[in-house]
Amino acid sequence: MIQNYISKAAVTGNLIRDEIIALLTLPEGAERDMLFAAADRVRKECVGDEVYLRGIVEFSNYCGRNCLYCGLRRGNAKLVRYRIPDDEILAAAGRVRDAGTSTIVLQSGEDPWYTRERLCFLVRRIKTELGLVITLSIGERPFEDYAAFREAGADRFLLKHETASRDLYKRLHPDSQFENRLKCLAWLGELDYEVGAGCMVGLPGQDLGALADDILLVKKIKVDMVGIGPFIAHPDTPLAAMPDGDVALTVKTVAVARLLTRTTNIPATTALGILDPKGREMGLSAGANVMMPDFTPVKYRSLYDLYPGRSGVIEPEQVIQSIRGYLESQGKSIGMGPGFRRKRE
Known about the structure:
alpha/beta
């Protein structure tokens, strides 16, 4: 029966909820290996052997939200806050370009200091002076802001839905609403952004049914990017005592997402690599096709404290060299173009 589910997903890109749950429960063994191999074949057929790099610059760790799992939450009084000056952001963006990476991800907490005008000025400068593809990951904004950022030159927007369970979303996000998150994702699609959503695996209170709903949601709303990473407990949040998410379950979720969403771009996340030294390689072998080296200046990097273990001091150029060597050993290569979803190229 499991083999039938895998074959069905690989051929049609469709599964029902119970079939997804069955695949997510697979223990280590031949059937799980079959799932990963099928996802890798679909990845090869639908997006090719190129792995695209997105250079992240985390320009502010201020956040007005109080999400229970996040180290940037406004209630974390232990965190030293920062905003990177524009000239340093531009310098970091220049490093992204000089490293041969065509996309920059400008990421921050939901920081109201960055008004529409400030962000548009920054986006225009990066687009005009450096010609990079620009992804924004800055949270929920009014429609008019999203429209202005698009007009200024932003190409992509990453806004993870976090969980498709309304009850769980409400518990974890005391000052935001699931319906508004979905509305923002719809607005971004209307404005012709490449849109990214995604979820965490192992959130306290999450079950396999909720994970299946996450996969079905990103398929239903037809996003272009799907970010899936394990929950990692942060010591300065209300969820400090909770266990971390499971790496194997995360990789299975990536694999099923690849089978069902086909041509989406799916990163092998930093969080996977933190929980398992081979985690990102596992993701790349099970359907992922994007990696995201961190170009945030070192003096700020440890302060973008979403979860423990992120504050490496290895320079991104070294990371890219390591990625290149690994990919060549697997018969893959670093993608040199913008890496838009295939349907848009």
